Amino acid sequence: MTKGSDPSPEVGSRLPTLRLPPLSRTTLALYAGGSGDHNPLHIDTDFARREGGRTDVIGHGMLTVAYLARAITAWRHAAALKSLTTRFVAPTAPGDSIRCEATVVALSQDGQQRIAHVSLRAVRGADETLATAEAAVVLR
């Protein structure tokens, strides 16, 4: 499906699944630099073990949110994303294979704008939810 090619999705329509490569330490370091979030829990294994009680670093929660937003912007232009609210369920870790799934759960009208309400989730492995989100996306 081409971006924006489905002008009238139906309730229950699934967006294309966004499949990401395994989360790498390089991705975490680049995200830390780009976002300004240099919390050592995300980039320093020794700190994560000593101070965080973890076996390794964890991914940035906002990186997971960015992946969820990317699932929408792969379907519609970024300007069409009217709102995105998220809830974190579990942290990510290096090596995680993450995919983002999305389903149109409602359609509404706001003045001249037709809005798709989309339920999303970021998933690790077979079916472990990492984050959930609700998005409002302008269709026209």
Describe this structure in words.
The chain is 24% helix and 33% strand. The longest helix has 13 residues, at 61-73. The two termini are 17 Å apart. By secondary structure, the protein is an alpha+beta fold. The model has no long low-confidence stretch (mean pLDDT 94). It contains four helices and five strands; from the N terminus they run βααααββββ. The protein has a five-stranded antiparallel beta sheet with strand order 1-3-4-5-2, with helices on one face. The chain has helices spanning 25-35, 40-43, 45-50, 61-73, and strands at residues 18-19, 81-88, 98-110, 113-124, 128-138. The chain has a domain at 13-23 and 59-139: Hotdog Thioesterase (Thiol Ester Dehydrase, Chain A).
CATH topology of the domain at 13-23 and 59-139: Thiol Ester Dehydrase, Chain A
Low-confidence stretches: none
Overall CATH architecture of the domain at 13-23 and 59-139: Roll
Q: Identify the strand order in the major beta sheet.
A: 1-3-4-5-2
> For the record, what CATH class of the domain at 13-23 and 59-139 applies?
Alpha Beta
* Biggest β-sheet strands, sense, barrel: 5 strands, antiparallel
What gap, in angstroms, lies between the N and C termini? Answer: 17 Å
H/E element sequence: EHHHHEEEE
Helix content: 10-25%
Overall average residue pLDDT: 94
The best one-word shape is elongated
Q: CATH superfamily membership of the domain at 13-23 and 59-139, which one?
A: Hotdog Thioesterase
User: Count of helical segments?
Assistant: 4
State Rg: 17 Å
Strand content: 25-35%
How many distinct beta strands? 5
Q: How would you classify the helix and strand content by structural class?
A: alpha+beta
